[in-house]
Specification:
2-enoyl-CoA Hydratase, Chain A, domain 1, 28 helices, Rossmann fold, six-stranded mixed sheet, binds (2S,3S)-3-hydroxy-2-methylbutanoyl-COA, alpha/beta, eight-stranded mixed sheet, N-(1-d-carboxylethyl)-l-norvaline Dehydrogenase, domain 2
Amino acid sequence: MTATSPEGVDPVRLVSTSPVALIEIDNPPVNATSQAVRAGLLAAIQEVGRNPQIEAVVIACAGKTFVAGADIREFGQTPREPHLPDVINAIEACSKPVVAAIQGTALGGGCEIALACHARVAEPGASLGLPEVKLGLVPGAGGTQRLPRLIGLEAALDLVTSGRPVKAQEALRLGLVDRISSGDLRQDATELARELIGQPLRRTGERSVVAMDAETASAKAAEIRKKARGAEAPGKAAELVLLAAGLPLQDGMARERETFLDLRCSEQSAALRHAFFAEREVMRLPGLDSVEPRRVQKVGIVGAGTMGSGIAIAFADAGFDVRIVETSEQALTAGQARVADVYDKQVASGRITAAARDERLRAIGYAIGTSSLSDRDLVIEAVFEDLEVKRALFRDLDAVLPPGTILATNTSYLDISLIADATSRPADVVGLHFFSPAHVMRLLEIVRTDATAADVVATGLALAKRLRKIPVVCRVCDGFVGNRILSRYRQQAEYLLEEGALPHEVDAALEAFGFPMGPFAVSDLAGLDINWARRKRLAPTRDPRERYVDIADRLCEAGRFGRKTGAGWYRYEGGKREVDPVVTALVEESSQRRGLTRRAISADEIQSRIRAAIVNEACKILDERIVERPLDVDVVMMHGYGYPAWRGGPLFEADRVGLQSILAQVQERAAQDGPGWEPADSLINRAASGAKFYP
Ligand code: T1G
């Protein structure tokens, strides 16, 4: 009656209790609808239909979550029957009431199974969604057709094209679930199933959809495509959802299936599936899997500025005991206000309740001076980005903190070995480089020196998991991984200015490439003064032969630090970013000083030169063993610097573009731009041998 998975265990079992039976799916870790699950589910629902003792049935899952979707690992293989749409149609067609009991997440195919049930009960903490667009797909088993039939076109467009999950309360409000369980989920679902016995069956597929007027529909579709910034799935998903208003269910599902199968073979979906698994693979560093992390519950943060307060919030959100210290009451009060402001905004937006805010505010203590940190398991500094300031602080902390406490620095690019050398315990020193805003950005660079103990690195990885961060372990170099690559491609962007482009043209080309913002707009947001300080620090060691562009220095000398001063690469009137003729004049004058005749530069040239700069620097980072794997670089660039995930990250994409063409770009630039732009050894070798980053 039920199929068996490769391991020989039945992932689906039918408990033929009367009058309400139970179909339980048990396919760890997330009850994905593997072939065996699909076959078992189909057999079970067919048995329910045949067995006169059974008058209704509940579909439930073992473990922590309902079905979290189709098995993504199967996508590279030929689809095997029974196909999920057929199983789901059989559930909806069942002559007896079928109720879904949802805990954890009902995502993708799991949500589609729930949609085909005749009713849905969810635990208070459950969430439901159709995240297929995040994999470069559209729902492939009725989601685009049944969801609008249940919650209407507008709400369905939002959920299907954004891929965002909704929590139980919102799902109840939308009509996506019928009840929220007050205690025993399966008992509540069984109770509802019993109530439905003998009642007309509420088949989602038989409901009609109120159409949207053509003008509104096309405007919404256009807005969705624009927001997708080059990703094709959201636009396709919008088209399918809008079709639901005009087509019978099976016709709509046929169109959906056709689109799904097309996208499943697309480069964008391959890239997004790579991104999905890469951000999990980075958690596992070769050689660390048997190393026990240290216990961390009490966390100290030195510095209550933007970064320090953001880091404090990240730890408080994850249930840690947090204490922030500063050097003055004024600075501490300002930090406390920053923290309160973030949480108040989250309450105002409905993201958290006032009670949750109060609980997290209670988890964060404040004090003056480092003496109050003597009970901490981990202390993170987020003070002024100056090496001597950090060394002095770590000397102080070394004297205050008990043995075993980990000392972490949030520095963006200073040499952590030099900071560690200021202590008697370099093995306990590590870099935890958060990205601003620290309570939002998921990337965390864990920077190990040659002295950092293995269990300290393992502790960083364990912390990242608890913080719901995406960790990349790297070694010390200027800028580690992300900032080092960023400064390199910013340089190439400035060369493009001297040769004929203007800041807004470079930014537009990279936004068309899929970056959320171009490098000059990002600089204005972050503040030009941060990198100005870095360039001045590096000036004494800069190779005089290096092609150095001083436009940014001249902007800084004029006090143009970006948004915060009302002008930088752009000028800002009422918060609106505008091209500034002053900057255009500076750029043109820079070309003259360089003796260059300005020329029009295409978006294609801008994009390919920036990508080549990124790939080449990434290869150097790999050659120097700053990171161990290409996926480490791809994850940093996607999660810290906005490299479009539908391209899979720079190295995944380099395989597709072809390393020979990228090497040719790099060699051309090396001839023009001098030291620092030589092709990386591994780029030359891979281009010659045809070896891919992802074989
Ligand atoms: N298929 C295969 N493996 C999966 C998987 C999936 N759908 N989801 C998770 N895993 C693995 C994951 O790689 C990891 O493995 C382990 O499970 C734990 O995951 C027909 C076509 C459910 C919110 O996109 O969002 O349905 O690293 O570390 O943090 O229309 O996993 O341990 O070896 O993420 O608790 C749509 C994707 C598929 C959901 C749990 N569904 N998954 O998060 O654990 S397409 C999704 C998630 C589809 C239909 C279409 C999360 C989670 P390993 P984890 P978590």
